[in-house]
Design brief:
By secondary structure, the chain is an alpha/beta fold. The protein folds into 2 domains: 153 residues, Lyase, Ornithine Decarboxylase, Chain A, domain 1 (Beta Barrel), CATH 2.40.37; 185 residues, Alpha-Beta Barrel (TIM Barrel). It contains 12 helices and 23 strands. Strands 4, 16, 17, 18, 19, 20, 21, 22 and 23 form a 9-stranded mixed sheet that branches. It has an 8-stranded parallel beta barrel with strand order 5-6-7-8-9-12-14-15, surrounded by 5 helices. Strands 1-2-3 form a 3-stranded antiparallel sheet. The chain binds pyridoxal-5'-phosphate.
Length: 407
């Protein structure tokens, strides 16, 4: 199976040369392990298919400083959505000129901090954002590049979280933007392009190609109607990954081919315009595993329950997003599955079940359970302080070594 090919060597579960079956003896569970090589490989894949685009890593997917540092060294820029993410990105070594700030609610203090950092661009979601940014720029004596975030009229993709095409808190509605922006008197702020983030976890390459073409056309039209030079177009991203064994991979080669024509056409008029993809999940999701240990096993009225030391407090995604993450017993990778098991956590609510009906060898106390595909929106989206169980450790496996991934 796909996930096993990525991780299993000689029957042992391995991340970057480190076998994880004995990990529970070395570190307290629950914990996360990330694979530096896996992350680098995904960045390279995206960049190789889209050399004309800058890839900005969306820190919201996983702001762990070691993860950020791997992507920064690989060549990525950063997309940040809060002042704290900005601090993390700068500390990880991302150059200001390679950072964009995209957030639907910006306070005056947020904007001031962003402008002080001198990043490449900040996205504005409303006329009031433009006024706020302009006023902060005047106070600080800086010039700012702003991207208009647009809630487009595109068709909506089949994806987990769709952010365009309907009523939305994000950006200017496409049909309103010219009227809302045209009359503004901006003195310290330069509208430099547009930003459109459409959806997360998109695996439909045809939809993505149509989205990219749509954004090229929209950027051109708005630059003409509002009279700005196109310095940057940010297409968002939303590149998906297979969530479980039945999902297919996103066809990057097909997407790159489909986008080549619109890209070449755009380039003839805008040879220097910076093109940006924001990407979180695609870069890091498959390179993380959430590891928890079975504390006890109960057979209850016909069901087998493996009750573990980590649950929705440490890994909330399967519960809140209703996502089935592939699950394995890491210490028994060679054994055949025999039982349907509910893998539960230690939290005092029946909601705290990370996998229902997972097909596994009959679990026993002490087994090490791994949830794959946990590198994005795992730790960071969890209820880390709920029931005061302590936060899971985060570890980075890199070239045969395992170390604490500083956080
Ligand atoms: C504005 C913006 N950019 C980038 C991302 C990252 O998306 P993904 O992890 O799907 O690549 C998100 C996710 O919500 C987002 O809202």
């Amino acid at each position: 199976m796909r996930f096993d090919n990525f991780y299993v060597r000689d029957g042992r579960f391995v991340a970057d040369g480190v076998a994880l079956d004995g990990i529970a003896g070395r570190y307290p569970t629950p914990l996360y392990v990330y694979s530096a090589n896996g992350i680098r490989a995904k960045y390279r894949l995206l960049k190789e298919h889209f050399p004309a685009f800058d890839i900005c890593y969306s820190l919201k997917a996983n702001p762990n400083p070691s993860v950020c540092a791997v992507l920064q060294r690989a060549g990525a820029g950063a997309e940040v959505s809060s002042p704290r993410e900005l601090v993390t990105a700068l500390a990880a070594g991302f150059a200001s000129k390679n950072i964009v700030y995209v957030a639907p609610a910006k306070t005056a203090a947020d904007v001031e901090q962003v402008l002080r950092a001198g990043i490449h661009a900040i996205a504005a979601d409303a006329a009031s954002d433009l006024e706020l940014i302009d006023s902060a720029a005047r106070t600080l004596g800086v010039k700012v590049r702003v991207l208009l975030r647009i809630n487009t009229n595109e068709s909506q993709p089949e994806a987990k979280e769709v952010m365009v095409g309907g009523p939305s808190k994000f950006g200017f509605d496409e049909e309103q933007v010219v009227a809302e922006v045209a009359g503004l008197k901006l003195k310290h702020t330069r509208i430099a392009g547009i930003q459109v983030y459409s959806a997360s976890q998109v695996l439909d390459g045809e939809w993505l190609a149509a989205h990219i073409e749509y954004v090229f056309r929209l950027a051109r039209r708005l630059s003409q109607e509002l009279g700005f030079k196109q310095e940057t177009v940010d297409f968002g991203g939303g590149f998906g990954v297979p969530q479980h064994e039945l999902d297919h991979e996103l066809d990057l080669a097909g997407l790159a081919e489909a986008v080549a024509g619109p890209l070449a056409e755009f380039r003839t008029d805008n040879p220097d315009c910076r093109l940006i993809f924001e990407s979180g999940r695609y870069l890091v999701a498959e390179s993380g595993v959430f590891v928890t240990r079975v504390v006890r096993v109960k057979e209850s009225r016909g069901r087998v329950l493996a009750i573990c030391d980590g649950g929705m407090n440490a890994f909330a995604r399967p519960v809140f997003m209703r996502i089935r993450h592939p699950v394995r017993l890491l210490n028994r990778m060679e054994e055949q599955a025999t039982n349907h098991v509910d893998v539960c956590g230690p939290i005092c609510t029946p909601l705290d079940c990370l996998a229902r009906d997972a097909y596994l060898p009959m679990p026993k106390a002490g087994d090490i359970v791994g949830f794959l595909n946990a590198g994005a929106y795992g730790y960071t989206m969890s209820l880390l302080d709920f029931m005061s169980r302590g936060r899971p450790a985060e570890l980075m496996a890199d070239a045969g070594e395992l170390r604490l991934a500083s956080s």
